[in-house]
Amino acid sequence: MSVLTSPRGKVEVVHCRRTESQDIYCIKSLIRKFTCKLFGKLNIIYLLEKANLAVTLCNDKEEIMAQATFLDYPNWNVAKQDNWVSVFRELDNDIPCTPLNTLFMHLFVAVDEYSVGCCKEILRTVYKAVPELHFIFLIVPSYMSLGSTLITVFDQVGNIPCLTYEEDFAVHICHRHSHYPQLHVRKARVEDHDDLMPIFMRYDTILKETYGEYFLAELIEAQDEENHAVVCEVAGTAVGFMSVCSRVNMQLLHECFDLGPFHGLCFPHPDDVLEAPQELSVRRSQDAELRSSSQGSQKIVEESQEPVFPDTMENIQGNIAKEAASEEALTAVQSGSVSEPEDIEKLSDVSTGYAQDDRVSSRSLASLLLPEEPVHFRPIYRGASAAFCIQLFCIDEKYEARSLDFMNFVFSLFSDKNFCIISLPHLTPEFILIQNFVKMVPFSTCTLEQDLYVFHRAGLLKNICLGRSSQ
């Protein structure tokens, strides 16, 4: 929520949200002749469908105050959609624009009385929502002025010709640092304690109660080659803190989480065991075959078995018991010994039990043949650890969207590590920094009451070059 004040002194409480299709009617009502001269005649429906980001500014009554639409290629056909970088680099080599850090404003409309405030609020929200964004370009006919609103946030860079019209267009730029700048990150100092403690106490008082009032100062003083504490600051004031450590219990992580996609968070080693031994593979296949065959036999037995009435069952049981007893007595006479009545009764009991539930016996036989637990192979990683962990993290909610600014600095402190990990209790709400991490899948035997998140160094790449593959 933000508060806008008009030149007449009127106040409006506004908030930004993504543009919806139901906003189209109100957007059209805000378009003026001057808007068409700046951006051209637009199909609003088509523009919103193609937009990378469309933002609507509303007041507390959900009335639309302003709207802006951004795409990842320039308007007015001044360059090809897939090859505009070289054209804009020629205007100013000091602007490192790329498809990953640049957007183009294709439309902006606003209520006249609040237009300046609405424009600044939308740009601040866009830069806050897209941390990788650094430049927003605005292209208009060279003979047009930007008006009293857009000229307050855009600066002209130069002119470029159009591919279809015989006229030039003016290129204007808006920089991130004017609206929602990157945070300056540095090593923590003991003097930062007083700035950081109010932020910690706002979220949690357990640390202070457990480790004492000056736990943060002690943590900062205890820095060494394996432990580092860093802060982010705005205008010389610390607004965020992160404590990182290179000591990680890799054995525990290997036992509790499936780290195969990241090679166990270790460096490759010649003695790594990444595939199951041949004996284990054969055993797995035999278990699978046995399981499938037993299931098939159970199905055959169940299908072939017919229902038996109670009276018939009793007669069958009695006949089986009599036959078994007579056979046992005959055998005993022939061998020169006579079985006691107890033995005969036991034999009849066993026979009766078998006749009562043939299905149960077949199932129990199958269950005896199968192993109780399936055999799961887990890779063995013998290389050195390639990860460091975040022990403590906190940042002022005003600057939370810039949490990722920490990562470049902490990876520079551990130049030999490729992964950053953090573990959180299961019910911890997802915050902005963790949205850039990958949640690992725990094993069924995991005993930790925490989730593990992993961030790879490659997540910091800001430019990607594609080319033809060669032999």
UniProtKB/TrEMBL annotation:
UniProt-annotated stretches for the region Disordered: 285-308
Domain (Cilia- and flagella-associated protein 61 N-terminal) ranges: 16-266
Cleaved signal peptide residues: none
Pfam families in the record: CFAP61_N (PF16092)
InterPro entries assigned to the protein according to its UniProt record, in alphabetical order: CFAP61 (IPR038884), CFAP61_N (IPR032151)
Xref: PANTHER family: CILIA- AND FLAGELLA-ASSOCIATED PROTEIN 61
Name by which UniProt lists this protein: Cilia and flagella associated protein 61
Protein source organism: Mandrillus leucophaeus
Gene: CFAP61
